[in-house]
Amino acid sequence: MSGTSNDTARGVVVGVDIGGTKVLAGVVELDGRVGRTARRTTPGRRVVTSRVEDALVAAVLEAADGRPLAGVGVAAAGFVDSAGERVMFAPHLPWQGEPLRDLLADRLGCPVGLDNDANCAARAEAHHGAARGAASALMITMGTGIGGAVLLDGHVVRGANGMAGEFGHMQVVPDGQACECGRRGCWEQYSSGNALVREARALMADQPSVLVEMSGGAPEQVTGPMVTSAAEQGDLVARQAFASVGGWLGVGTANLVAAFDPEVVVVGGGVSAAGDRLLDPARAALRRTLVGAGHRVVPLLVAARLGPQAGMVGAALLVSGDQVRR
Amino acid sequence: MSGTSNDTARGVVVGVDIGGTKVLAGVVELDGRVGRTARRTTPGRRVVTSRVEDALVAAVLEAADGRPLAGVGVAAAGFVDSAGERVMFAPHLPWQGEPLRDLLADRLGCPVGLDNDANCAARAEAHHGAARGAASALMITMGTGIGGAVLLDGHVVRGANGMAGEFGHMQVVPDGQACECGRRGCWEQYSSGNALVREARALMADQPSVLVEMSGGAPEQVTGPMVTSAAEQGDLVARQAFASVGGWLGVGTANLVAAFDPEVVVVGGGVSAAGDRLLDPARAALRRTLVGAGHRVVPLLVAARLGPQAGMVGAALLVSGDQVRR
User: Name one Pfam family in it (chains A, B) (predicted).
Assistant: First the structure.
């Protein structure tokens, strides 16, 4: 497999995914496979920024295991400027405009690439996953909220501010549910991990559900994984919650498809682990809501393939992209 | 001006805009200026397709005025396939999948380009108008409904089915106003020429308005140009109608900007003739509704520059594009 290994004289490529709770680094091969990984706890958002950089550098060096670094790509859970140089702000990290890319390049002594985590995950799916070979694709990342990315010819469209793909804050209900962003009716209030839990909590007030027992009778203790597990056990409340969140996934996707007309729509993020329980109601709503559905090829709505490693793999592509570009 | 004229030995480039009521053809210079034009009435949608092609060919030949044809670009008010070969369907034209591009190339003896009218107008604004020089832009065309296009590096993103840019049928109100497309709550039901007229008709039932006199006391006789004229005279009903339609223009634009993050948003089409009366409430709603407005450069929302000739000029770019591409 020498043709696909990057462990050569020029060194290894390491991808890093940094979120609010953990830093995950891994050596990424040219074919997208992940080798040695390392993990650190994110120091938090109220610490000096250098402590977060320390954790990041430590994770990179542990993953590299003494091999020289050919390049390091960083996927950050925050807004990255259009030049890919700075994390402008991030809800769970202390960076506010620090020139992270150059700071890390100095400390690591190799080229560094930087982008937000949703863009990196999309890049990974485009090169090695569910969007591979598509001339145009949308990535929708469903976690706590909704993130995403627009892909054209395998490249992420980053936008004038590097902020393209903020799908979760498209308004789908005028004067709707209040959103953490300060506005109302944002898509992610109806289709996300948070929405799934809220829907299940509301439904279990009126209907029998295994979630009552799972949560010790306290609806506020219900979590997303509990709803997924309850749905697998056939619980009707949990299944209704997935039908609601999936339906809204389809409605919002129809809006994006009307605008972009992509070949394929890839759904990733934690909630997408529910697979067809989420995607089947979404596919039905997409067909029902999409303009001209009878006159077009309705895009496939598919689950992401790379799972929790997508951010890391896509980050590595920021520095090894030329070698794998189709 | 020999450097900008296309009236050379290789012949002239003619752009044609064909809609439900008229066929407009014109010689288009390399700098986007329009020379000799010709006009025909569209024969209708219930005639044999060759009659429409006859009208189109006649308009082209009249505009060319005996000069050889270097190429002809056609902007059609309908859905054009992703290859740019066929009009798949059109509400006011008889074509249903005819290979129009090749049919016309045979009849005219020159290369022919084909795209839908909104894409052509966007291409014209990108090369010669309000989106010139922008790395990314959105064109929103407000006429009877809403059409549009996505521009990246001056090129229209056509989509997998050639159907990108169908912004008017993004759902903004669940179970909202019924739409001609068969669904409910489409954006163009709240922000378009039709929406402007409907809003004014509803408001004049309860408030004094010059529209009562202008329409002979019959609200169903109110037209878009009447509302524009009444607003210019200071009529409060007409101004409220513009505020409503403009506000919804901003809300829908905020959704598109969240997704694409373009440098500039260009608003064209008949309703855009109202200028800031439409765009000021739209700008306010865009700033209010756009995610992260405090952390980004909010894109300019500007009126299109090329007016009713945009389709024709953009159609010509389909066959002369290489010569003017930046």
Answer: ROK
Looking at every residue in chain B, the average pLDDT score rounds to 92
Cβ-Cβ pairs closer than 8 A, A with B, add up to 135
Q: Cβ of A262 under 8 Å from any chain B Cβ?
A: yes
Task: Please tell me the distance from the alpha carbon of residue B81 to that of residue A208, in angstroms, as a whole number.
Answer: 51
Answer yes or no: same fold for A12-123+309-324 and A133-304: yes
End-to-end CA distance of chain A: 19
CA atoms within 13 A on the CB side of A38: 17
Cβ contact (<8 Å) for A262 and B160?
yes
Residue of A156, A169, A264 best to disrupt the B interface, most CBs of B under 10 A: A169
Mark yes or no for CB contact A158/B261 under 8 Å: yes
Shortest CA distance from B251: residue in chain A:
A171
Which pair of tokens denotes residue A304?
């992401």
Q: State whether residue A167 sits within 8 Å of chain B by CB.
A: yes
pLDDT tens digits, A102-149: 999 999 999 999 999 999 999 999 999 999 999 999 999 998 899 999
Residue A23: both structure tokens together: 């830093």
Could you state, in order of their start, the residue ranges of all structural domains in chain A?
12-123+309-324, 133-304
Smallest Cβ distance to B261: which of A163, A186, A297?
A163
Contacts of B160 in chain A (CB under 8 A): 135-136, 261-263, 297, 299
What distance in Å separates the CA atoms of residue B26 and residue B59, rounded to the nearest whole number?
A: 8
- Given a contact cutoff of 8 angstroms between Cβ atoms, the answer to whether A172 and A194 are in contact is no
Where residue A326 falls among pLDDT bands split at 50, 70, 90?
very low
Chain CA centroid to CA A228, Å: 19
- Tell me, yes or no, if B95 comes closer than 8 A to chain A by beta carbon: no
CB nearest to B296's CB, from A163, A260, A261: A163
Q: Rounded to an integer, what distance in angstroms lies between the CA atom of residue A150 and that of residue A259? A: 11
Residue B93 clears pLDDT 70, i.e. is over it: yes
Distance from CA of A110 to the nearest CA of B (A): 30
Mean pLDDT highest for which of A8-12, A307-311, B103-107?
B103-107
Cα gap B159→A55, rounded to integer Å: 42
Which of A243, A201, A241, A237 lies closest to A222, judged by CA? Answer: A201
Q: Which CATH class is domain A133-304?
A: alpha beta
CATH architecture of A12-123+309-324: 2-Layer Sandwich (3.30)
Per-residue confidence (pLDDT) for residue A323, from 0 to 100: 41
Task: Check CB contact of A1 with chain B, cutoff 8 Å.
Answer: no
